[in-house]
Amino acid sequence: MKASEPQKAAWRRRPWRGLWLFTVCLAVTITYMKVLIPRLGAPDANATLFYPTLFFLWGFSFINIFQFWPFRRLRQPWCGLASVALGWVVIVPLWAWLTKVVDPYAANAMVVYTLFFVFTLAWFSDDVTSAIPVPQPLKGIVLVGCSMLLGWLVYTQIGVLPQAWLFFIPMWLFYFFELWPVPSGAPRALRVAFWVAAVLGGTLLLNCIHNLVGAPVSGAVGSDLESIVWAGMTPFYVMEVVGLPGRQPWKGMRWILGIFALAVVIGVLYYCVIHAPDWWMSRWIFVLWAWIVAFQWMTWPWPARETAERVAGEGGN
């Protein structure tokens, strides 16, 4: 019992760490949107859609697939901050090259499709990156390269879908189930196949619901509604509730119900009190999450169970 006390204390401190880091992310987002972008004169689509999408790709790749190479010998937060800087150095010239080769929205679609495979590797593959006995950066190059190839193949089959990013919502919601109900001893291929099917099914269901109620995700109302759900998800990820004690599936269901309840509150404020213009939520939440990835997740081991193991090993400090 005594051995678990430092870990328990560390878990209790996690929400507060998340809250002050979220404050930093929010301040940076406001500065980015209101000061930096206007001064640089960057197109709005680049600043609020294309660059954040590319940052998600490289951010999650650095965290999981490249395992923080080439900065993994640095202590946090310097390892993560160096990776953030490298990510932005890569993003701008890469986007400039992509838009010379294809239309910007086609390039963004390919990045979004690539993200599906990157997220799957990072969250639902039972840490396949660590299991592959290949040194970095070769391992990262191969895995990201395969994800890009698969993303390109998906693009050749379905083209540019405005609602292509919709899989973000069920994928990030399903993460609260912590790989339940697939048994821990199940083959990795079965685990991946199950969650790929579950995420695709959830995405199709969400898309059908939007179309039935006359608010397709390709339009401002549909996009903002999903972004409001994303905003409802934000405190639960910021406060790192994944990995907290509890029994599945009830724990996951509890978090998801909480997310939708908070989303309803945010939606009422958004439409009835603030009266924000179309696309406002879609633009701001996307940029905010890019900085959450940068300053919360890239500056500390992630996902949450890795955080727990590390802080427990450090005696809760």
How would you describe this structure to a colleague?
This protein has helices at about 5-40, 45-65, 80-100, 105-125, 130, 140-160, 170-175, 190-210, 220-240, 250-275, 280-295, 305-315. The protein is globular, with a radius of gyration of 19 Å. It is mostly helical and about 325 residues long. The chain is built from twelve helices and no strands.
Strand-residue proportion: under 5%
- Spatial shape: globular
Summing up helix and strand content along with how strands pair, one would put the structural category as mainly alpha
Q: What's the SSE pattern?
A: HHHHHHHHHHHH
Strand count: 0
Compact description:
The protein is mainly α and 317 residues long. The chain has 12 helices and no strands.
Quick tags:
12 helices, mainly alpha, disordered N terminus, globular, 317 residues
Question: What is this structure's SSE topology?
Answer:
Blueprint (H helix, E strand, L loop, with lengths): L3 H37 L3 H22 L12 H24 L2 H20 L4 H4 L6 H21 L9 H7 L13 H25 L7 H19 L11 H25 L5 H18 L6 H10 L4
Helix pairs in contact: 1-11, 1-12, 2-3, 2-4, 2-11, 4-6, 7-8, 9-10, 9-11
